[in-house]
Structure formats: C-alpha cells, structure tokens
Design goal:
The protein is mostly helical. It has one domain. Helices cover 60% and strands 1% of the residues. It is built from 12 helices and 2 strands. The protein has a two-stranded parallel sheet with strand order 1-2. The longest helix has 31 residues. The chain is globular and about 65 Å long. The C terminus is likely disordered.
Length: 333
C-alpha cells in the first residue's frame, strides 16, 4: 500500500516512540561495538610497524575484531532493512538515527577489512563473503541517505512518514534552518561512503601488498575512526534516549527505558570476549607457536608458512584459477 496525498498532507502533532531502532540499548550496542573494533583494528595495524611484538595478544585481537565486525555488519544491514520496510510509518527522525547507525556499521567493517585484509586475501570464500556484505550494506546505506537527503531538501513535516518525501502535496512545514549545510553534509557523507567502498574493493582484491600498504592502512583507520566518532556524537546529540535535540514530539514509552530486548543487544557483546578468553586459556587449541600474526588464516587450517609471493587465493570457479593455486593453500599432508 503506497502513501497518498491525503495521508501526507495533514501532519499530526506527535508521533510514537520506536525503541527498536532508537532505544538506549540499540544505540549503545552500535557505539560500543564500533569503538572496540576500531581500537583493536588500530592496534593490529600499528603492530605492523613494530618488530618483536607479542603474538598471543595479536591473535586475540584479530579474533575479537572479526567477531565484533560480523555482528556489526549484520546488525547494520538489518536495521536499515527495518527502516526501509517501515518507511510508510517511520518518521524522518527515526530514519535519520538508522542512517547514522549504518555509518557506524560501515566504519566498523571497513576498519576490520584494513586490519584483517591478509586473512581475506588468503581465503576466497571469506573475501567474497565480505565483499557481498559490503555491497549490500553500501546499497542500503546510499538508499537510506537518499531518503534523508530528500527529506532535508523538501523540509517535510517531522511527524510525517519518511515515505512522504516521494508524494506530491506532502506537508512541507518542517524546520528549514541550516538547510544548505545539512544538504551539503549529507551529500558529502554519501559520496565518501561510495568512495570508501570502491577503495576497499580495490584493496581487498589487490594481489600483492606494496611497500606503502602499511601507511595506507594507518591513514585509512584514522579516517574511519574520525567518521565513526562523528556519527556516534551526532546520534547521541539527536537521540531522545539520551535527551537529544530532536525536532519531533514523541508519545509513548520512553526510548531511554530498558527492556529485555534493549539489554539483549548489549549482552551479545559478551560472546566475543568469551571466545577470546577460551583462546587465551588454550581451550580451542590456538597455539602461539603455530600462528604468527597475519601469517595464518582465521579459519584455523594448518597451512604451510606463507610468503609474499603466495598470499592471494584465487576463486576456484574462475577460469584458469586452478593453475594459479599455490602450495601455500594445501594441507601439509
């Protein structure tokens, strides 16, 4: 059912709260996950500039980064899908929060890519799986950004559904203060997201690491951290769960109230730490003597030592890829 002019011409005075996308637990889960992942990714990347660094902490850091990134990208795709599915009822305020959380998700999984790029290069399944999730996240992110941009340009009433941006005759009595700045900022963020995706795709499929690769990773993680900090600060400023300066009147249960669903989003953050503790205690048989940082894939297979010549695994379905498969990807037996 599509929205009609009648539905979009009479904006109500208030709208209902939506703790499922803007609740305190949801927001904190995204911010905490992004923060931990980017900090650990920075630690891993800086380790490339140091020699003789302990191996075990790097192993744990890589496992944590991988786990948190997987959670974040799935949650990012999921929350954007929910927002688009509810565009006939969700107001621009909640949709804007979703878009900011999606930016956090983008910064997180791109930071993970920079930190664990060698693992993805050595396993074509992990590489193309990551590529697929990146593309889905980008497509949803750009689409949500277009909705946000359209709502800013048209200045639709803040209590109307976000889907009304495509309806002629919709109430456009929204706040138009700083409209030019908001439009430029939104366009820049969308463009930067697309550029980062293109660069990440190129870097992910780069067969050999050049001498400048370390510096590219370092500069990239700094830029992604700045992007994440900006998105986190902005979402905290506008979210009603933290007393933000939202431009819409809400009714219903407070988005700052806690429920099992809000608590669950934070409880799942404990799982990667449990896995890290198991690794540290040797419960799953990860040995520091067998695994060197950035020299052993995350899938745990016992492979022969890799060198700079054999650090990229081709897709076996690609024509002629079997001829390019090296001993680096065969079992010792």
């Amino acid at each position: 059912m599509s929205l009609t002019t009648a539905q979009c011409s009479n904006a109500p005075d208030t709208t209902t709260t939506d703790a499922g996308v803007a609740g305190a637990g949801v927001l904190l889960a995204f911010v905490i996950t992004a923060g931990i992942t980017l900090i650990l990714s920075t630690y891993i990347i800086l380790g490339d500039f140091r020699t003789g660094a302990p191996v075990t902490p790097k192993i744990i850091s890589r496992k944590l980064v991988s786990s948190f990134s997987d959670q974040q990208i799935i949650e990012g795709i999921g929350i954007q899908a929910v927002g688009l599915a509810k565009m006939r009822t969700m107001v621009p305020y909640h949709f804007f929060v979703i878009w900011l959380l999606a930016l956090l998700s983008t910064a997180t999984h791109l930071g993970t890519l920079l930190a664990l790029v060698q693992d993805y290069k050595r396993d074509w399944v992990l590489r193309w799986l990551r590529q697929g999730f990146m593309f889905i996240n980008l497509a949803l992110n750009v689409l949500c950004g277009v909705f946000v941009l359209k709502s800013v340009v048209d200045g639709i009433a803040p209590t109307l559904p976000i889907g009304c941006v495509w309806v002629d005759g919709a109430d456009r009595s929204g706040d138009r203060n700083n409209k030019a700045l908001s439009v430029v900022g939104t366009i820049v963020v969308i463009a930067v997201t697309v550029i980062l995706f293109i660069f990440a795709t190129w870097y992910l499929h780069l067969r050999r690491s050049a001498k400048w690769a370390k510096w590219v990773r370092l500069i990239g993680i700094i830029l992604l951290s700045a992007m994440a900090v900006g998105a986190a600060v902005r979402v905290m400023m506008v979210a009603s769960a933290f007393g933000g300066d939202k431009d819409v009147s809400l009714r219903g249960p407070s988005e700052s109230s806690w429920s099992f669903g809000q608590l669950l989003t934070l409880l799942v953050l404990i799982l990667p730490f449990i896995s890290a503790l198991e690794i540290f205690r040797g419960e799953i048989g990860v040995s520091a003597e067998q695994v060197e940082d950035d020299r052993q894939p995350l899938n745990g297979n016992e492979l022969k030592p890799l060198n700079d010549r054999y650090d990229y695994q081709d897709n076996p379905f690609k024509a002629g890829s079997k001829k390019k498969t090296t001993k680096a990807f065969r079992s010792p037996g």
